[in-house]
Amino acid sequence: MLLLPWQDAQRFWVEGKSTVDVDSIMSDIRSGVIPPLKSDSLPAFLFSFAKYKPDQIYSGLLFGPLLIAAFKCIFTSPSSAIEPKFVRTKAGNAQKLDIKAVTPELLVYVAAQVRFALCPIQSWSAKDGKFNLNHFYDNLVKFLYGAPAQWREKTFRALNEYVIHFVSVCCCF
């Protein structure tokens, strides 16, 4: 369900209350009523469905728990993805690579990794059937840079505080 396009995922995450609902949704996926994720779609795993509002595309966007956990795992440490710790372990990749802030490019890189991890292909490939990871990356970066400036600033400030803990740094893009 995490690879559904965001606008179709609400049927599962919000409206699916029983196994009958879920069975109906699964039937719609198999029959093509709910289309597969395209390279220019926003996958459900990008969203926090606790904050999700179906008529507001930016509501909950970039706060999906799997996306946040993957970002922390890659850039801070695997243990930070599971639970916050008050005692630091060894330096994470963000510190080793002198990454000072979450950027659209870093976040979309993680989104591409998550998409790959969720799909059934066995080895890394830019193309997976009709899905193209390069187009996905480019489209999502372009989408984020084209998002309203106020939303971008607020969202990336929150991501910096929550994910990398750089409270004083704000992305300038």
Walk me through what this model shows.
Pfam families: DUF6698. InterPro entries: DUF6698. With 173 residues, the protein is mostly helical. It has one domain. 51% of the residues lie in helices and 2% in strands. The protein has 8 helices and 2 strands, in the order ααααααββαα. It has a two-stranded antiparallel sheet. Helix 3 (65-75) packs across helix 6 (104-118) and helix 6 packs antiparallel against helix 7 (133-146). The longest helix is centred in the last third of the chain and has 16 residues, at 149-164. The chain is globular, with a radius of gyration of 17 Å. It starts with 5 loop residues before the first helix and ends in a 9-residue tail after the last helix. Mean pLDDT is 81; it is low at 166-173.
Largest sheet: 2 strands, antiparallel
Mean pLDDT: 81
Total E-strand runs: 2
Which spans have pLDDT < 50 for at least 5 consecutive residues? 166-173
Shape: globular
Distance between the termini: 32 Å
Radius of gyration: 17 Å
How many helices does DSSP assign?
Answer: 8
- The H/E string reads HHHHHHEEHH
Q: Would you tell me the structural class of the helices and strands?
A: mainly alpha
Q: How helical, in percent, are the residues?
A: 40-55%
Arrangement of strands in the largest sheet: 1-2
InterPro entries: DUF6698
Pfam family, one: DUF6698
